[in-house]
């Protein structure tokens, strides 16, 4: 009897693990992407049903600041190995300066806990802090090795990484695919990145997002999300894990070669991030009557 029950459990888990395409949702997303002036990719996975949509989901895109998710994983791998301590005190030096974000505005010799630098990397996307974390993680080579070992074969750090100069010229700081980036977010959510405890802390950091004017603006504020976005002139990207009432879902939208390079709210790539997010929320939560408050755009 116990063997029979165990066998049924294995069958059930196997069936849940098999993804299948949500054809109706795919049609809606293709319409949303149809007139985009540039290249766009989308990957969606509804974890309860196992349904997915993959549109250019295995195409390489620039990560921009979404590379800060792999950097965090590499850093926590060092912490797990005892080579760093999450709460250790760091000393900032002017030689670390990249731009005038929060970390880059510290005075020479200022002390700051590593945990705060990591939080700033993920929440406000602090660039100086992120490059500091990349170096502390052992650099791009160590982070890329962690990615490869954990099955993320397309996601790579390019900047300040020996041997990846050509990739950096093409993709910038890093490169990934919508499928892999969404997969990495799910990997962390499921407690599989580095360790369950490390995954939990990383996920908490990803749940403290300052930049909430794109995809997050189309999800009710009381809904828990974990996210990271990124933007450079010709690219807008966002990966979001949504704790929706009728089942968690994760999605990633990435663009490149955009014709619209304006840094305005109505940038075509930014608008696409919002449109996809709204479409997914309405699709997965059809009985929800929530919508962004009238005039919310003025806050951005």
UniProtKB/TrEMBL annotation:
For this protein, the record's Pfam families field holds:
Beta-lactamase2 (PF13354)
- Name a GO molecular-function annotation: beta-lactamase activity
Residues in Beta-lactamase class A catalytic domain copies? 41-255
Q: Does the keyword Signal apply?
A: yes
Q: Which residues form the signal peptide?
A: 1-17
List the InterPro entries: Beta-lactam/transpept-like, Beta-lactam_cat, Beta-lactam_class-A
An example Gene Ontology biological process: response to antibiotic
Q: Which domain of life is it from?
A: Bacteria
Key word Hydrolase present in the record?
yes
Task: Name the reaction it catalyses.
Answer: a beta-lactam + H2O = a substituted beta-amino acid
Keywords linked to the UniProt accession: Hydrolase, Signal
The identity of this protein, by name, is Serine hydrolase
């Amino acid at each position: 009897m116990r063997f029979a029950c165990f066998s049924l459990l294995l069958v059930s888990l196997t069936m849940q693990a098999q993804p299948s395409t949500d054809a109706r949702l795919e049609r809606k997303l293709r319409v949303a992407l149809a007139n985009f002036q540039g290249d766009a990719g989308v990957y969606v996975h509804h974890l309860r049903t196992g349904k997915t949509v993959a549109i250019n989901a295995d195409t390489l895109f620039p990560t921009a600041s979404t590379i800060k998710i792999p950097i965090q994983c590499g850093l926590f791998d060092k912490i797990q190995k005892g080579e760093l301590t999450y709460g250790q005190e760091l000393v900032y030096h002017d030689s670390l300066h990249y731009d005038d974000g929060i970390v880059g505005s510290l005075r020479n010799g200022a002390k700051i806990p590593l945990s705060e630098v990591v939080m700033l990397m993920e929440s406000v996307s602090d660039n100086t802090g992120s490059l500091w974390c990349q170096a502390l993680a052992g650099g791009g080579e160590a982070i890329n090795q962690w990615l490869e070992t954990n099955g993320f074969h397309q996601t790579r750090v390019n900047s300040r990484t020996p041997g990846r100069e050509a990739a950096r010229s093409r993709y910038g700081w890093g490169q990934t695919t919508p499928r892999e980036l969404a997969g990495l977010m799910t990997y962390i959510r499921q407690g599989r990145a580095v360790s369950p405890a490390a995954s939990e802390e990383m996920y908490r950091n990803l749940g403290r997002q300052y930049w909430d004017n794109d995809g997050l603006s189309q999800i009710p504020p009381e809904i828990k999300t974990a996210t990271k976005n990124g933007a450079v002139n010709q690219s807008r990207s966002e990966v979001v894990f949504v704790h929706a009432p009728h089942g968690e879902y994760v999605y990633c939208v990435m663009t490149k070669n955009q014709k619209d390079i304006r840094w305005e709210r109505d940038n075509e790539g930014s608008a696409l991030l919002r449109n996809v997010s709204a479409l997914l929320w309405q699709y997965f939560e059809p009985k929800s009557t929530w919508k962004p408050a009238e005039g919310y755009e003025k806050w951005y």
